[in-house]
Design goal:
With 114 residues, the chain is an all-alpha fold. Helices cover 80% and strands 0% of the residues. Helix 2 runs antiparallel to helix 3 (30-61).
Length: 114
């Protein structure tokens, strides 16, 4: 359970604001640096309070789930499954992604050389 919470929290952590605040404080922009630093620290505190409240609310209704150790599938089983599911639709999706990636990279390259 803590790993699942940590994965979701990493997307919400105001790391960019903290990095910008540190940069501003290092470059003598005290007013804006302190404001951003206070914002990011407050955001960290709100995230921590949200995680604690969620865990406490969960424990009101159910006990924590049992931790189970997962075991990976054997490699031959994974390879056999991948070979069996290569349908026309999946090949078509890969082809669309390949063409889209090539077009995007060529457009970005053309824009950068202008």
């Amino acid at each position: 359970m803590p790993r699942a919470l940590f994965g979701g929290i990493t997307l919400l952590v105001p790391a960019a604001a903290l990095a910008i605040a540190t940069h501003e404080l290092a470059n003598d922009a005290i007013e804006s640096g302190i404001g951003r630093l206070a914002y990011s620290l407050l955001r960290f505190a709100m995230l921590a309070a949200g995680v604690v409240a969620t865990l406490k609310l969960w424990l009101l209704f159910e006990p924590m789930p049992v931790v189970r150790v997962s075991t990976p599938l054997p490699l031959p089983a994974v390879l056999a499954h991948d070979a069996g599911t290569a349908t026309f639709f999946s090949v078509f999706l890969v082809a669309i992604q390949l063409v889209g990636g090539l077009v995007l990279s060529s457009v970005l390259f053309a824009r950068s050389t202008r």
